[in-house]
């Protein structure tokens, strides 16, 4: 009760504005990477307890909501709780008192192990104030491009939703700070994505006291967007209006789609100012701060291994060798030049495994193809393969000529290998 009095005493400074105009529709031009096939791994949530929500959330200043909540989460970098949301975006503290506003619009719609109003928050005590920040990549597949996607929210007490493009420009879709007398809200807004790709998103949520609810859903097609207190007519429940809850499969944490940690429930956020900067910037060794402001493994050509150094030259790919990430010549046979294969144990292009006799019989230049002989060919891995065996000449009339050709090629390979 003391916390609730503190909350309403603080919000007395805010203006009542039940008729607040909804945000304008948003168009986002480009994502930060190509869209991914398959199912995503879910959003990463970072949450912390607020002992003084008036000051922690800067409640007297509703226009500074996003800045205040981001500042609060970063101030708790050492003690915040971080985890992956593996359920539908239907969260609730399942407070059944009064009108059960914590239940939201989607009843018994989340995982079977969740409760009637939704899955548990980071904290479910109705007297505990906290803030949560959800981050990840929204995967915009080709079928979603240039479609009117209406993002819908049911929130008690407050929420904001922002999309970022490839220039890291922020596109606020909804911004709903706490407001005196209206703790529960429904709001929708249209977003159009101009191209397929991965788009960084951020959701900021706060709970002050009593009921806690956060539902995020979507509708594709014609819909009249609105923003209203949940108890203000006309009451339009989003489930009845045809909206669908977002599932974790819609969201990724890394550019290549892999989990950010081996444990699918583990994730870590980083300060947005360090996106794509050199060094680990609060992330673990071998990780970097990616475009969604999440810690991600340095397992790509641009950043590879414990030092997150770029790959290039004769070793253009980031490969896994015995559990260690490092730059290698190839990932698979397709990365090697004409006919060469990729040795899985060394990630080098191996000419000895190409079809026997093709070089001598058709005059194409040897058993490994022109890429290995000439130091790489366009479209291949551009690597100089280490010789692991020599091809013997075929028996018969051409045996002696092929043997001489094989000896000449062997000498050229030995000379190149010794010069590396």
UniProtKB/TrEMBL annotation:
Q: Where is the composition biased (Polar residues)?
A: 345-356
Q: Which domain of life is it from?
A: Bacteria
Q: Where are the compositionally biased (Gly residues) regions? A: 357-373
The record's region (Disordered) falls at 345-373
User: What are the record keywords, sorted?
Assistant: Signal
Q: Where is the signal peptide?
A: 1-23
How is this protein named in the record?
Answer: TraA
* Native organism: Polyangium spumosum
């Amino acid at each position: 009760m003391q916390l609730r009095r503190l909350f309403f005493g603080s919000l007395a400074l805010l203006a009542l504005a039940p008729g607040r105009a909804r945000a304008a529709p948003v168009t986002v031009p480009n994502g930060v990477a190509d869209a991914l096939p398959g199912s995503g791994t879910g959003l990463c949530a970072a949450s912390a307890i607020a002992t003084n929500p008036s000051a922690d959330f800067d409640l007297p200043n509703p226009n500074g909501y996003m800045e205040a909540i981001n500042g609060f989460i970063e101030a708790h970098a050492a003690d915040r709780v971080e985890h992956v949301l593996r359920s539908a975006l239907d969260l609730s503290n399942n407070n059944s008192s009064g009108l059960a506003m914590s239940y939201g619009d989607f009843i018994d719609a989340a995982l079977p192990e969740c409760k009637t109003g939704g899955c548990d928050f980071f904290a479910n005590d109705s007297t505990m104030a906290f803030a949560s920040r959800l981050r990840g990549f929204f995967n915009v597949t080709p079928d979603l491009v240039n479609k009117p996607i209406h993002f819908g929210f049911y929130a008690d007490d407050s929420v904001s939703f922002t999309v970022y493009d490839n220039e890291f420009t922020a596109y606020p879709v909804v911004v709903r700070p706490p407001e005196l007398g209206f703790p529960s809200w429904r709001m929708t807004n249209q977003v159009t994505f101009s191209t397929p790709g991965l788009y960084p998103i951020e959701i900021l949520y706060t709970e002050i006291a009593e009921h806690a609810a956060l539902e995020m859903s979507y509708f594709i097609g014609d819909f009249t967007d609105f923003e209203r207190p949940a108890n203000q007519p006309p009451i339009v429940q989003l489930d009845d209006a045809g909206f669908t809850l977002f599932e974790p499969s819609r969201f990724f944490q890394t550019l290549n789609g892999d989990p950010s940690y081996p444990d699918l429930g583990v994730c870590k956020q980083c300060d947005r100012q360090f996106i794509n900067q050199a060094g680990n910037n609060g992330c673990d060794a071998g990780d970097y701060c990616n475009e969604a402001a999440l810690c991600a493994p340095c397992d790509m050509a641009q950043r590879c291994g414990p030092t997150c150094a770029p790959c290039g030259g004769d070793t253009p790919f980031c490969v896994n060798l015995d559990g260690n990430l490092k730059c290698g010549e190839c990932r698979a046979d397709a990365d090697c030049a004409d006919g060469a294969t990729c040795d899985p144990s060394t990630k080098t292009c191996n000419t000895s495994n190409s079809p026997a006799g093709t070089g001598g019989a058709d005059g194409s230049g040897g058993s490994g193809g022109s890429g290995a002989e000439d130091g790489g060919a366009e479209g291949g891995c551009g690597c100089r393969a280490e010789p692991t065996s020599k091809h013997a000449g075929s028996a018969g009339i051409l045996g002696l000529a092929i043997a001489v050709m094989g000896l000449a090629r062997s000498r050229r390979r030995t000379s190149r290998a010794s010069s590396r």
